[in-house]
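Step 1: inspect the first sequence and its tokens.
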Amino acid sequence: MSQPSRSPAESQKIAFVAADFDTAQDALAGLQSAYPNVEPEHADVIVALGGDGFVLQTLRRFVDRKIPVFGLNRGSVGFLMNEYSDAGLPERLAKAQAVTLYPLHMVARTGDGQTHESLAINEVSLLRETYQAAKIEILIDGVVRMEELICDGILVATPAGSTAYNLSAHGPIIPLNAEILALTPISAFRPRRWRGALLPHDAEVVFRVREAKKRPVSATADDFEVRDITEVTIREDRARSFQLLFDPETNLEERILKEQFAP
């Protein structure tokens, strides 16, 4: 992870995008009437109105253009968002700090022989599709580390995603500048006491689903789901990156640190 840096100057061209629920759309209309704005393809910075899910969609949508995204929370959780206000937006953008995030690249293979690829900023997660527990073989850099994990699922999380689903599954919180990935089981049955592992950021993780027809499993990269998988390969993609902007007083590093001391 790179260190936070200053955002572009106040004169940057701003584009607004919003989720499709009422509070986000109302905020979109107000900001577009209050500030000069351009279409996203001509912007220097994108202001995304919604929740964490929407800001993740926005980052992936514009990954090839490398446009920094400043999220304003109109959703519920908003861990990756800034506090919403319609006042002084150009000044906030001029002072904002940028954090560079590197995504995970998921390649999922299904029982019918198809291959699906997607990027994940938070995590890639596997989940059982039926009442039967999943059976998953785990390989790290080509070495079988666990022949069979019986569980509801398993996930690989980035530092940015370590406070999301990973935390709910009792995985570790990882500082942004730590070049580590979290490998976290979801309701592990056997090995019963296995809590997961911390992996180098450049590790290749492969999950193979055992008894895939009897015990179907889905794979999800953030919000992109593939069902009835047989194998998933996950690696960090350093060839691509995202820039997420934060108000200096509530930057992502500080939020992750505070989360470790939350009551």
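Step 2: inspect the second sequence and its tokens, then contrast the two.
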Amino acid sequence: MAQVFDRSSNALARASLVLTGLLVIVLGVTLDQLQRSPWVTRQGQRAEQPVPFSHKHHVEGLGLQCQYCHTTVEDSSYAGIPPTKTCINCHSQIWTNAALLQPVRDSWATDASIQWIKVHDLPDYVYFNHEIHVNKGIGCASCHGRVDQMPLMYMQNTLQMEWCLNCHRNPAVNLRPTSEIYNMAWAEPSTDKPVWCAPTGKGASGTGPTAESVACLTKDPSSNGNPEIAMLQAQAGMESQPHATSAGQTESDGPPMAVLVPASKYRKFTSQIDLGRYLTSQYHIRPPNELTSCETCHR
């Protein structure tokens, strides 16, 4: 019987199998890189907003705090988009005829909301809570980047699941004192710039929020003339001044925020991982195996 296939057919068959395998691998790698690219994640892209609002101008230039506009960031799952009234608080007095602010004036006159384009837009199946992150020591810049240096807002990080899981597996690398949450220029502790922290006796015992369970300073608490200690002493002095209430009882004037801790109780930290592990314990953050469970984000 005549030979149907030439002897070279075996080599061609093997080569075709190898090429098919390589093609599958290349296609898989390409798709993997594509779904991580800015084309899909919109990372670094600046959306065209109805009003070219500059965080750099308002935060770095004018010194506005994040909470002035994002009023619910500490007690809600949403940071909140400021209503037109927040803009008009200032712009009824300044830049009143600026052309780029015409949409703001129109919104105020017609009572129609400005149609802002959401920059950090998570999928509908993901549950994210701003409140728990802010009150557990995650700073704004850890997720949103240096917003104070952004003339136009963009997404600094991918916000994909793997990015979230990297933090949930080891949150210590991103934790900071709650007093530094809104400090965009916060830098992790180092030998040259250590941080001192001490438990306050609040929060952990159920007498206050977790955020008040630790007091942290950037100056040596045992040194004379420490401005941070002086500020706490002044606040504590305000709290200790009682006054009469309508019911005939007395209460303190100041908010229950200032906590004086003896200098001997402060612990010095010169690395982020040591500080993070300490804050993980003090803030009662769940272990990584619980933080990475599906029900943490998918509800």
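Step 3: confirm your contrast with the notes below.
The first strand starts at residue 195 and ends at 199. Strands lie at 195-199, 214-217, 242-244, 250-252, 267-269.
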